[in-house]
Amino acid sequence: MPSPSIELELNSLKDAVSMALDYAAKLGTSGAEVAISKQQGLSVSTRLKEVETVEFNKDGALGITLFRDGCKGSSSTSDLSPEAIRRAVKAADDIARFTSEDSFNGLADASLMATHIEDLELYYPHETTPLALELLAAAAEEAALSSDPRIKNSDGASANAHTGMKVYGNSHGFLHGYSSSRYSLSCVVIGEQDGNMQRDYDYTVARKFSDLWTPEAVGLKAAQKTLGRLGGRKIATTKLPILFAPDVATGLMGHLVGAISGGSLYRKSSFLQDAIDTQVFPDWFTIAEQPHLKGALASAYYDSEGVATIDRNIIDNGILSTYLLTSYSARKLGLTNTGHAGGIYNWTLAHTGQTFDELVKQMGTGLIVTEVMGQGVNGVTGDYSRGAAGFYVENGVIQYPVEEITIAGNLKDMYRNIVAVAKDRDLRSSIRTGGILLDEMKIAGS
């Protein structure tokens, strides 16, 4: 539970939001919404166990958007005094009076507002100091540098502790706020063997400080990943099964987010245009969105328009069940708001029962992709072509690291041709998935 002092500060921010909404109502606007975000954090980075930077941030602002019969105006202020808030509301109203009318503008429907809101356990305060964070970062570097003589250098480590508050209200009478925390530790190291140099990293992130991996675990994992890349080579141009490592698989699913988002759809710039209720993935494949997971990194009872979030299947037995719509994009498309203003909420991919290592064996001969590079993804056509690195696998056993290759395909085909999803999920992002095995992709090499 938040402490009394946190509750007091939250109530103060709610009062500021209420004040802005009252000012807006007196101006005769057709609707208004106000949001305040306030963050405080400490970050320490080291290199070769010596402090490079110490950064402390404390900032926040009130943002207000007013509507006048389809015209929209927005302004913001970091000064929360009554007079500054009044001026911000007046500025937003002045802008609204001179903008073009757009009939799709406006608040989300009142009937969609969240009414049942519980504590999602997103806030775990932890007192720390620059010295404490420095010791964490330095310990991660020490673990990596002392693990193997081939780890020659460090590209730095970073330890971070951040807390924040968010309050949102609108003229439907919705007003709510909550606190959150996020802690992280990362380490990047450089290895050398026979004149060949490679770098890699690892990281941990959590709402609760005690849930972070130890610095030794982060450093050793960064070192192991770096050492694994030494001696990389190209392979001949071919077609092979591809196994995306979990942290790369999240990016593969990230392209789906963009393709089914309202903005892409009403602009007709998506390779999944008009794909609702059609088979996009294999018939065993499901993505469940779980907004109310306690303590998760992407949990919320409402989106940035106050719309209630709900458990739903984004992909249900391979079929695209829903788009990701805000109030504006829903009106543009003549559909219903899905509560996705501000992003997605804990997408969890159903797995096929195997661990990642078991998928390596199942693949037989193929390529594990541990890194992709470049921007070669066309959101309109789905064409996919990116630089990649990873490991060549033969008879289910890793043979050697691979680098300087390109993997290519089309996302429509790639999604349909997913063979399996590993059960050991990476939970460090809003997309929670294990490794993803595809039956085949084009590989451009030597």
Describe the protein's topology.
Layout: H1 4-26, E1 31-47, E2 50-68, E3 71-77, H2 82-96, H3 130-145, E4 151-170, E5 175-193, E6 196-206, H4 215-229, E7 238-244, H5 246-259, H6 262-266, E8 287-289, E9 312-316, E10 319-320, H7 327-333, E11 347-349, H8 356-363, E12 366-373, E13 383-394, E14 397-410, H9 411-416, E15 418-421, E16 431-432, E17 436-444
Parallel strand pairs: 7-12, 11-16
Antiparallel strand pairs: 1-2, 1-4, 2-3, 4-5, 5-6, 7-17, 8-9, 8-11, 9-10, 12-13, 13-14, 14-17, 15-17
GO molecular function, one term: metallopeptidase activity
Domain Metalloprotease TldD/E central: 133-230
Organism: Shewanella colwelliana (Alteromonas colwelliana)
Provide mean pLDDT, rounded.
96
Tell me the Rg in angstroms.
24 Å
Q: Which strand-content bin applies to the residues?
A: 35-45%
CATH superfamily of the largest domain: PmbA/TldD superfamily
Written as H for each helix and E for each strand, in order along the chain, the element string is HEEEHHEEEHEHHEEEHEHEEEHEEE
The share of residues in helices is 10-25%
How would you characterize the largest beta sheet? Answer: 6 strands, antiparallel
Q: What is the CATH topology descriptor of the largest domain?
A: PmbA/TldD fold
Overall geometry: globular
Total domain modules:
2
CATH architecture tag of the largest domain:
2-Layer Sandwich
Q: Order the strands across the largest sheet as they lie in space.
A: 3-2-1-4-5-6
Can you identify the CATH class of the largest domain? Alpha Beta
- Tell me the number of strands: 17
Q: SS-based structural class?
A: alpha+beta
Number of helices: 9
GO cellular component, one term: cytosol
GO molecular function, one term: metallopeptidase activity
Domain Metalloprotease TldD/E C-terminal: 238-445
Domain Metalloprotease TldD/E N-terminal: 32-96
